[in-house]
Write a structure and sequence with these properties.
The structure holds 2 protein chains of 2 kinds. By secondary structure, chain A is an alpha/beta fold. Chain A contains 7 helices and 12 strands. Chain B has helices at about 10-15, 90-95, 135-140, 200-205, and strands spanning about 25-30, 45-50, 55-60, 80-85, 105, 110, 115-120, 140-145, 160, 170-175, 180-185, 190-195, 210. In chain B, strands 2-1-5-8-10-11-12-13 form an 8-stranded mixed beta sheet. A 3-stranded mixed beta sheet of chain B has the order 7-6-9, with no helix packed on it. A two-stranded antiparallel sheet of chain B has the order 3-4. The chains are: A alpha/beta, B alpha/beta.
Chain lengths: ~260, ~220
């Protein structure tokens, strides 16, 4: 009987992550963000991390104090980020990352979003590189290998393997077969495929084997190694409605007075 | 908004939306283009595709009724129309790169008369925000741009050559600004329609490239 994939806490699930590894953080905007795992890694303190994610903060609709890559940056745990957004998506937004980046304390690789997704899919599919039409003729393609197929120019992109993937799912069984809900799927299955170790925060109670119909599995447990159930708020982080975020921020401001 | 003259942002999107054909698969960028999902398409069936894998999303969810697992690429809580589907990011971009998207409507800092455009990095900025724009711009069948006529400091956004790093080269078909509708033609940038209350001289004075202007410029067509 192989070792159980179920962990009792986020802290236990990230305890052995060493310095200088590459970690992928799934999620897009507010949905499917591994917020709890991110908070646990900030507490654990691994340094020299290369962090792969769509952006730094997962959209403006997360509460200001939700754990995101910004926490790891502030803790000086991050050596490099690989993202589709390294600047805020709204003029009003400020990132801790920007200060570190402008001072040269953090390196960044900016990647078109589709290329980022495909580089991880390729890593998970055993494909070392591929050609894409995205970014041809731009600053990102300068000095890099391109090739013409059927009269059109394409840019060579290499697979992006991860040491660890942090993802969030709706349902899991004990083997780690996953189901996502609505837009929660986003980068999550791709990061899991690309990673040596995939750690999942699961929203519903972890189910016995057989409870998810095989036809309904979105990601095979072959790509999944550790599962942690997200506890109810406030112990666990859950997405909030925009009005709830506003009310919460106002209450915090009032309490601080 | 430095200049409120001419079309509103919603009107800008309404005008571009009139170009959509029945059955088109449409992807909207962040900023002004998101307003396109509010447009009235009449009898036309329009399917909205989002980079995060939501295919067939509908109007914004009412406050308090948001599904916490459902957003579009702009992070807005949307609804799903009958016939919607969910795919992961690599499949969503597979649809983009393989040419399944009929039109993408994007915001921009600059559009050049040769169809180059720039929307991911401002002058002097370190880093930037590409998102899905480079994939979309390189691969969508049509690229439409919705942006203000001039920058906050009053400089033209329609230019001879982009001064800031481009998103893609030679891809823009149609541009709407608060001053009018512009088409990128093999001969350069053409003024097709002009916003009510704006003169041709004002358009020329705020455009940084040669403009092909017909003898009679029609007023921007708007429904309702």
């Amino acid at each position: 009987m192989p070792k159980s994939k179920i962990f009792e806490s986020f802290d236990e699930a990230v305890a052995d992550i060493p310095d200088n590894v590459t970690v992928g953080f799934g999620g897009f905007a507010v949905v499917g963000q591994p917020v709890n795992l991110c908070g646990a890694l900030a507490a654990q303190g691994a340094k020299g991390l290369t962090c792969v994610s769509n952006g730094l903060r997962g959209g403006a609709t997360l509460p200001e104090d939700a754990p995101t890559l910004e926490w790891l940056v502030r803790n000086e745990q991050v050596k490099k980020v690989i993202c589709a957004f390294t600047a805020p998506t709204r003029a009003s937004q400020r990132l801790v990352f920007t200060e570190y980046y402008e001072k040269g304390l953090i390196d960044a690789e900016l990647v078109p979003q589709g290329t980022l997704a495909e580089r991880m899919r390729a890593a998970g599919a055993g494909i070392p590189a591929f050609y894409t039409p995205a970014a041809v003729g731009t600053e990102l393609a300068e000095g890099r290998e391109t090739r013409v197929f059927n009269g059109r120019e394409y840019l060579l992109e290499e697979a992006l393997p991860l040491d660890y993937a942090f993802i969030r799912a709706y349902q899991a069984d004990a083997f780690g077969n996953l189901r996502f809900r609505r837009a929660q799927r986003n980068f999550n299955p791709l990061m899991a495929m690309a990673a040596k170790v995939t750690i999942v925060e699961v929203e519903e109670d972890i189910l016995p084997m057989g409870a998810i119909d095989p036809d309904d599995v979105h990601l095979s447990g072959i790509f999944v190694h550790r599962l942690v159930k997200v506890p109810p708020a406030p112990e666990g982080w859950w997405p909030m409605r925009p009005a709830e975020i506003v009310a919460r921020a106002a209450a915090q401001k009032e309490a601080a007075r | 908004m430095s200049d409120t003259k001419g079309l509103t942002r919603q009107q800008m999107c309404d005008r571009l939306a009139m170009e959509f054909q029945d059955g088109w698969i449409v992807n909207l960028g962040i900023g002004i283009p998101t307003l396109t999902s509010n447009c009235d398409f009449g009898d036309k069936a329009i399917i909205f595709h989002s980079e995060n894998g939501v295919v067939g999303y509908g109007p914004l969810a009412a406050p308090g009724r948001e599904d916490m697992h459902l957003v579009n690429a702009g992070g807005q809580h949307v609804t799903m129309n009958p016939g919607s589907a969910i795919v992961h990011h690599a499949d969503a971009f597979g649809m983009i790169r393989s040419g399944r998207i009929d039109v993408t409507v994007l915001g921009a800092y600059e559009v050049a008369e040769n169809g180059d455009f720039a929307n991911w990095k401002m002058a002097g900025q370190k880093g930037g925000g590409i998102g899905g724009a480079m994939d979309l711009a390189a691969c969508a069948k049509h690229v439409f741009v919705a942006m203000e006529q001039v920058t906050r400091s009053g400089r033209p956004r329609l230019v001879e050559r982009c001064a800031i790093p481009v998103t893609a080269r030679g891809v823009v078909d149609l541009v709407v600004t608060n001053y009018g509708l512009f088409e990128i033609t093999p001969d350069g940038m053409a003024l097709k329609e002009i916003a009510p209350g704006v003169s041709v001289d004002e358009v020329k004075a705020t455009t940084g490239c040669n403009l092909i202007v017909p003898p009679e410029v029609p007023v921007v067509r708007l429904r309702g």
